[in-house]
């Protein structure tokens, strides 16, 4: 009996195997029928695509190919985002080039002084009335009464001694006397290099409306053109747009700006932070912009004095530049005197000198304060600020 049972089991195994083979063959044929035939000329799989047994991948379900295994820790391949384009950094014009260009503009703006004086002096009728007219012309040009009288007396003496009113000769005399008044011997250098291993510190002050923040931005361009590493401090925290304006100026030439994100922040604190940051960056110079002040407002002027004192806890203040509007004339003299008392002015920046024929303010402010005009602004362009050159200034007037 066991023999019959064994034979029956063998027959069942054979029949089962045949049926299983038929099912697999049917599935294989269906899979190949579902697949689109390859396009003519399409290359077959390469050796790299073949599994070790020659099969193309491993089939889990009809038509589904399992991808190659990814190494542990490796995420999906993601394209790196494109970096935003770097901001364009401008190259400011060199100061030497500015002086040549600005001299012509200065000559045009001061023709009243030069032509008026030369016409009077070369007229041949230098009586007392004529000399009074010469003096009035100089006073009207904001030269100041004392300086005007001094210049007229010197010219009268030369004309009397030499006995000539030749225009070429008189022009030479006028140039010499004006140059003596402007005083080319004054030190007009700017604190723009490291001092005793620290950045030079420049505090910029002035009344409202003189273009002070713009002047700081333009001064940064002057220094960058001289290969100086500059840091700006936006300590004008009362005018909402002042810090943004200064940061824009600095960004154009690649200069960082230290500012507060809070409107109305303590300006002394911002100034202190700017000086500290400049030291950490090992910059050559830090320029600190301050809020515009009215010289007759005691509280505002006292606060300006506080800004300077707080800075000095971190670093000496090497330069205090007063920005004056040349068109304000003698009123600018009163402003200058008050600022000099509060923070100790070391130099003057005259803006808008191209908008007036009253270039005599250069002489007047220097004589009143005993400090030199160091920079002049002669236009609205970003590079229209230049170091003051006494000889170029005087030549522009008399030529």
Automatic annotation (TrEMBL):
Residues 72-81 have a biased composition (Low complexity). It comes from Phycicoccus avicenniae. Involved in targeting and insertion of nascent membrane proteins into the cytoplasmic membrane. Acts as a receptor for the complex formed by the signal recognition particle (SRP) and the ribosome-nascent chain (RNC). Keywords: Cell membrane, Cytoplasm, GTP-binding, Hydrolase, Membrane, Nucleotide-binding, Receptor. NCBIfam families: ftsY. Its EC number is 3.6.5.4. GO terms for cellular component: cytoplasm; plasma membrane. GTP binds at residues 206-213, 289-293, 351-354. GO terms for biological process: SRP-dependent cotranslational protein targeting to membrane. The gene is ftsY. This is Signal recognition particle receptor FtsY.
């Amino acid at each position: 009996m066991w023999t019959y049972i064994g034979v029956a089991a063998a027959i069942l195994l054979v029949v089962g195997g045949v049926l299983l083979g038929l099912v697999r063959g049917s599935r294989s044929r269906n899979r190949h029928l579902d697949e689109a035939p390859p396009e003519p000329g399409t290359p077959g799989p390469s050796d790299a695509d073949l599994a070790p047994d020659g099969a193309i991948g491993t089939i889990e379900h009809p038509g589904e190919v399992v991808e190659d295994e990814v190494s542990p820790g490796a995420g999906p391949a993601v394209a790196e985002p494109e970096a935003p384009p770097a901001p364009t950094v401008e190259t400011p014009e060199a100061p030497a080039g500015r002086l040549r260009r600005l001299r012509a503009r200065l000559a045009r703006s001061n023709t009243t002084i030069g032509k008026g004086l030369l016409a009077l002096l070369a007229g041949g009728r230098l009586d007392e009335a004529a000399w009074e007219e010469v003096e009035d012309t100089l006073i009207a040009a904001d030269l100041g009464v004392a300086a005007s009288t001094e210049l007229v007396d010197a010219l009268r003496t030369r004309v009397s001694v030499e006995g000539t009113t030749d225009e070429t000769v008189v022009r030479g005399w006028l140039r010499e006397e004006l140059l003596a008044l402007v005083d080319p011997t004054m030190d007009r250098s700017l604190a723009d290099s490291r001092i005793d291993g620290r950045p030079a510190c420049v505090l910029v002050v002035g009344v409202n409306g003189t273009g002070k923040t713009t002047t700081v931005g333009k001064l940064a361009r002057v220094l960058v053109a001289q290969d100086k590493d500059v840091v700006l401090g936006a300590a004008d925290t009362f005018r909402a747009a002042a810090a943004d304006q200064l940061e824009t100026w600095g960004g154009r030439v690649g200069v960082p700006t230290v500012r507060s994100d809070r409107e109305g922040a303590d300006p002394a604190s911002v100034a202190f932070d700017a000086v500290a940051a400049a030291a950490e960056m090992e910059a050559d110079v830090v320029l600190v912009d301050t809020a515009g002040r009215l010289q007759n407002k005691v509280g505002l002027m006292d606060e300006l004095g506080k800004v300077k004192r707080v800075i000095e806890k971190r670093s000496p203040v090497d330069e205090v530049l007063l920005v004056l509007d040349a068109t304000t004339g003698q009123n600018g003299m009163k402003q200058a005197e008050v600022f000099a008392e509060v923070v100790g002015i070391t130099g003057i920046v005259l803006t808008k000198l191209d908008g007036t024929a009253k270039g005599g303010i250069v002489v007047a402010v220097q004589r009143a304060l005993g400090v030199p005009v160091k920079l002049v602004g002669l236009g609205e362009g970003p590079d229209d600020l230049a170091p003051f050159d006494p000889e170029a200034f005087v030549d522009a007037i008399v030529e």
